[in-house]
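To illustrate the input format used throughout this study, we show a single complete record. The first block contains the structure-token representation of the backbone; no residue identities are included at this stage. The design step must infer an amino acid for every position from geometry alone.
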């Protein structure tokens, strides 16, 4: 061991340069967190309560909303603590567990979004064969496959990570347990883990992005062949919400991971990480609700139900 002392906890710095702004920022992030839980929870309730929304697209949307609830819950409570506690400590097993769930859920989101792209491709490019191809069994297989592959990729790396001794610098200049600083604190050989992490990143991010781009390339080509303007608008509206979410998600991820190191700013990466961890999960339910007549109709129906019941009583 480098200094002879095993690490029993890590220190999360959060955002140390915002003295005097802790209370307003804490309040804002807390409100965003509550809205995120409420918005994504509402999407799940609406889909399960409204028969017209029980289609493949909304099934995947439920998976995405469920994932976003836990993705934010993995990080935000500890982030909030950094604003109110002078020294935010997290035990080493807790830190490794947070890191596992953060990357497991983040990896799974790539596959869920890719499955949604495939669903939109079939719906627009193969409309006559869509019901026969996108069956309930295939939806379930795609969803379970997304969760299982995301779990397996991160679980294998985490099993290697927890076997390492930690005795280096235990201060993490971030608001959650990012794997980079954890590896720097390890005393053993991290070469295998770093190689696996690189391979996983290259497989998941460019791979899923390429599949999504091919799907939307085919969708765009099909839409442009529709003769009437209203027909093109209607076809595009069915995938506009998903395309917006994909653009926000991949935009933030590509900004953080695929920029040249010489031009990287860690402070900027932390800000973008906040947007990806907090803002995107908040915006998702609003994006799908604002642009979707079926969801808005289900929401109006749900809001009118208590009034109808009250008058009937």
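Output of the design step:
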């Amino acid at each position: 061991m480098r200094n002879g002392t095993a690490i029993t906890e890590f220190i999360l710095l959060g955002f140390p340069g915002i003295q005097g702004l802790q209370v307003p920022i804490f309040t804002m992030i807390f409100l965003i967190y509550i809205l995120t839980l409420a918005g994504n929870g509402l999407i799940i309730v609406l889909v399960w309560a409204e028969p017209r929304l029980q289609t493949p697209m909304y099934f995947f949307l439920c998976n995405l909303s469920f994932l976003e609830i836990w993705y934010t819950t993995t990080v935000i409570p500890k982030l909030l603590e950094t604003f109110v506690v002078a020294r935010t400590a997290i035990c080493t097993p807790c830190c490794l567990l947070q890191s596992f769930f953060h990357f497991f859920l983040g990896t799974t989101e790539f596959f869920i979004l890719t499955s949604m792209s495939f669903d939109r491709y079939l719906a627009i490019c193969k409309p006559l064969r869509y019901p026969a191809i996108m069956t309930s069994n295939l939806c379930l297989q795609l969803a379970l496959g997304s969760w299982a592959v995301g779990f397996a990729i991160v679980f294998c790396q985490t099993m290697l990570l927890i076997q390492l001794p930690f005795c280096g610098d235990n201060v993490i200049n971030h608001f959650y347990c990012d794997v980079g600083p954890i590896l720097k604190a390890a005393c053993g050989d991290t070469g295998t883990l770093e190689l696996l992490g690189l391979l996983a990143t290259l497989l998941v991010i460019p791979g899923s992005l390429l599949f999504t781009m091919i799907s939307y390339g085919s969708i765009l080509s099909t839409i442009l062949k529709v003769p009437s303007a209203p027909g093109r608008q209607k076809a595009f509206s069915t995938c506009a919400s998903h395309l917006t979410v994909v653009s926000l998600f991949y935009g933030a991820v590509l900004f953080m991971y695929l920029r040249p190191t010489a031009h990287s700013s860690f402070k900027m990466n932390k800000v973008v990480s906040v947007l990806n961890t907090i803002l995107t999960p908040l915006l998702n339910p609003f994006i799908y609700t604002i642009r979707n007549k079926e969801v808005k109709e289900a929401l109006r129906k749900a809001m009118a139900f208590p009034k109808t019941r009250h008058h009937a009583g």
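Structural context for interpreting the output: The longest helix spans residues 92-125. The mean pLDDT is 85.
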